[in-house]
Amino acid sequence: SLNTFQALTDRIILTARSSSGFLMLQSQSFPIPGSISSASRDGLTYKFILGRGNNISKQDTRFLMKDFDPDTVALNPDEYGFGNGLFEDSTGLIRSFKTPYVRRLI
């Protein structure tokens, strides 16, 4: 259940902070609000948001990066229409980044 998931993530994040470990959560879309508690969100060391298309909206950042306006960061569009992201480190510094796009592996 959602309550069990939240309790588990809270416990792992608190334990990780005291033992230099970390928890990586990945989701295409968290049902916001309520996927993880705000205490867990605030305890995350790193936060990544991958853009849909060349835009990252306030809707995308509203939970993980609260009170952050993604329009304040210049994201350079690419020819494929995706591959942009935002990264927040443990100091609260938010940076943009590009993810590689591979057309064909073979």
List the helices and strands and how they pair.
Blueprint lengths: L1 H18 L18 H6 L3 E4 L7 H4 L22 E5 L5 E5 L8
Antiparallel strand pairs: 1-2, 2-3
Annotation keywords:
alpha+beta; globular; 3-stranded antiparallel β-sheet; 26% helix; 106 residues; 13% strand
Tell me the quaternary state.
Answer: single chain
**How many β strands by DSSP?**
3
Number of DSSP helical runs: 3
Rg value: 15 Å
Mean pLDDT: 75
Structural class: alpha+beta
Unreliable stretches (pLDDT < 50, length at least 5) are: none
Let me know the largest β-sheet: 3 strands, antiparallel
Overall body shape: globular
Give the strand order of the largest sheet, numbering strands 1, 2, ... along the chain: 1-2-3
Termini separation: 42 Å
Helix content: 25-40%
Helix and strand run = HHEHEE
- How much strand? 5-15%
Detailed description of the structure:
With 106 residues, the chain is of the alpha+beta class. 26% of the residues lie in helices and 13% in strands. It has 3 helices and 3 strands, in the order ααβαββ. The protein has helices at residues 2-19, 38-43, 58-61; strands spanning 47-50, 84-88, 94-98. A 3-stranded antiparallel sheet has the order 1-2-3, with no helix packed on it. Strand 2 (84-88) and strand 3 (94-98) form a beta hairpin. It is globular, with a radius of gyration of 15 Å. The model has no long low-confidence stretch (mean pLDDT 75).
